[in-house]
Design brief:
The protein has helices at 8-14, 16-31, 37-44, 48-60, 76-104, 187-195, 205-213, 224-233, 244-257; strands spanning 64-66, 72-74, 106-111, 120-126, 129-133, 140-143, 152-159, 169-174, 199-203, 238-243, 261-265. By secondary structure, it is of the alpha/beta class. Strands 3-5-4-6-7 form a five-stranded mixed barrel. A four-stranded parallel beta sheet has the order 9-10-8-11, with helices on both faces. It has a two-stranded antiparallel sheet with strand order 1-2. Helix 1 crosses helix 2 (16-31), helix 2 (16-31) packs across helix 5 and helix 3 crosses helix 4 (48-60). The protein starts with 7 loop residues before the first helix and ends with a strand.
């Protein structure tokens, strides 16, 4: 990765001042228009006077607009500056994860066959788990100690990209109790969707009872939202049965992590 004077990453990693400006812009964007300089100062471990000075500079440079005493908003120019630096940091983090840490870490996998120390193995994902076998694949590594088939095995010096497809998430909306609850759920459609899913989750008691009434126990209830996301990232097709008031927020969460989903409205007329 080449670092040049015009590269945002060059500035943001080498200048404490630029890091501080980025933090302040993010804080303003999160809390605008009412910005509490004292709180930002406490978070960043600097004085309120320093925050005031930074904000004044940002206003002068057109990245923040002052709209009254103690009220500020990040301008279009400020948003573009934050995005440019955030994308550079994200790219750098991805480079660290994929190209650096991957090389020096020891990954735990399931031995697909009997393996011996220093065997070169192909690494792949299956049913959400990492496997290692002797067949050559796009991702390869080196076994760190003997392991029998089915045992956990350490794999070091991982190279290449593990072939992997994220799982589809079926988001099934059911009504809150005020609107009929589990009694107003299309049971046949619910069963058909969950029958094809590798993991089924319920959010809300109405969703849990609807699944039970259909003869399907959920695999997840507590922590189900993040559990479904984790499972989908590991390649498992999931169905989440969720009450309507939680529905929109969950879709926003899926959009933020860029996972594919299909919506099913299971509310009976």
């Amino acid at each position: 990765m080449t670092l040049g004077a015009k590269d945002p990453l060059y500035s943001i990693l080498r200048s404490k001042r630029e890091v501080s400006r980025l933090q302040i812009l993010v804080e303003i964007a999160e809390h605008q228009p009412a910005v509490r300089q004292q709180e930002i100062a406490e978070k960043m471990g600097v004085t309120p006077q320093a925050i005031s000075e930074y904000i004044r500079e940002l206003v002068d440079e057109g990245m923040v607009s002052a709209i009254g005493r103690g009220n500020y908003e990040v301008t279009k120019s400020g948003i573009e500056w934050v995005l440019a630096n955030a994308e550079s940091l994200e790219s750098y983090a991805r480079h660290i994860r994929r190209d650096i840490i991957q090389q020096v870490s020891v990954w735990a996998a399931i031995a697909d066959e009997n393996l011996h120390k220093d065997d070169e193995v192909g690494v792949y994902m299956k049913d959400g788990f990492l496997y290692a076998g002797k067949s050559p694949l796009a991702a390869t590594g080196m076994v760190v100690a003997d392991a029998k088939k089915g045992q956990d095995v350490g794999v070091a010096r991982l190279n290449g990209i593990i072939e992997h497809k994220e799982g589809m998430i079926h988001v099934c909306k059911v009504p809150r109790i005020q609107h009929g609850g589990s009694k107003k759920v299309k049971r046949a459609e619910l069963l058909a969707i969950t029958r094809e899913a590798g993991m089924v989750a319920a959010v809300g008691l109405e969703a849990y009872i609807a699944l039970e009434a259909a003869g399907r126990k959920p695999d997840m209830f507590f922590g189900a939202r993040e559990g479904v996301i984790e499972a989908a990232f590991h390649g498992i097709e999931c169905a989440i049965i969720i009450v309507d008031e939680e529905f929109t927020d969950f879709l926003k969460r899926l959009e933020s992590v860029e996972l594919a989903y299909v919506i099913h409205d299971l509310i009976a007329p």
